[in-house]
Structures are given as C-alpha cells and as structure tokens.
Specification:
Blueprint (H helix, E strand, L loop, with lengths): L2 H13 L4 H42 L2 H24 L14 H43 L2
Helix pairs in contact: 1-2, 1-4, 2-3, 2-4, 3-4
C-alpha cells in the first residue's frame, strides 16, 4: 500500500472521529459515484451507437473522411464502454474486503476505488476521442450537404 493512501485512510478515520463504519461508508459512496459516472458513459455510448445505426449510412456516404470518422467513432466508443464495464462496473462486493483491522479494510477498499478511478479516467479519455470522431463525421456530413 502506498504511503499516500495510508495517510488518506488515517485522515478519513480522523475526519469520521474514529467511527470505522462512517469511514467505510465514505469510501463506499465514492465508489458509487465512480460507478454512476461509468454507467452514464456507457449509456451515452449506447445512444450514440444506436443513432449511428439510423444515420451511419448517410454519415459514411458524405465523404471518405466521414466514413473513417464514423467507423472510428463506433470502434473507439465501444472500446471505451468495454473498458468501463470491465474496469469499473465489474461486480465485486466490498464486504469481502472487511478485515478485523479497520485500517486494513479501509486501505483495501481505497485500493479498489483508486483502481476503478484510473480505469474510469482511461475509458473517459477514449470516450472523448470517440465522441470527437463522431462529431467530425457529423460535421463532414453537414459540410458535404449543399
């Protein structure tokens, strides 16, 4: 465990006035927030892929660049959604991390939180790139329409 994480765990316990349950619940809420953000990103990806199902042909026919952008956007968005699903939304019970020592429990749950946060950061970065490709394909379509 990193010394930074250990210091954070100690600060959380201090903030919660030594109440181990409150400290556990604080980290649990942070994990819930990560999961909610990942769910929103996956939902938006599904919407964009569905929209592409309706408009993808028109977007792809606008130009070679439009075709590459729409295909690239679908691929990148699906990879981002898969990363979020596997790295953040994968089911694992926090109660399995409970130890007799509250600091150990807190450190374990924080490690999970940090790993999921990093996976979310990476999937959001890919999502932004995929969305940019999608926006570029729409722009290509609009520019090609006269």
């Amino acid at each position: 465990m990193s010394s930074t994480r250990r210091r954070e765990a100690e600060h959380i316990l201090k903030l919660c006035l030594g109440d181990h349950l409150r400290a556990y619940q604080l980290v649990e809420r942070q994990l819930s927030r990560l999961i909610n953000r990942a769910q929103v990103m996956v939902s938006v990806t599904v919407i964009l892929v569905a929209l592409t199902g309706f408009s993808g042909k028109a977007l792809a026919q606008s130009s070679e660049m439009g075709r590459l952008c729409v295909a690239g956007s679908i691929l990148i968005l699906l990879i981002a959604a898969a990363m979020a699903t596997i790295g953040v939304l994968r089911l694992g019970w926090l109660s399995a991390q409970i130890d007799d020592e509250p600091i150990v429990t807190l450190l374990r749950t924080m490690e999970i939180r940090d790993r999921k946060a990093e996976n979310l950061r990476r999937s959001i970065a890919l999502f932004v790139v995929g969305f940019a490709f999608y926006a570029a394909s729409v722009a290509q379509y609009l520019l090609a329409t006269r």
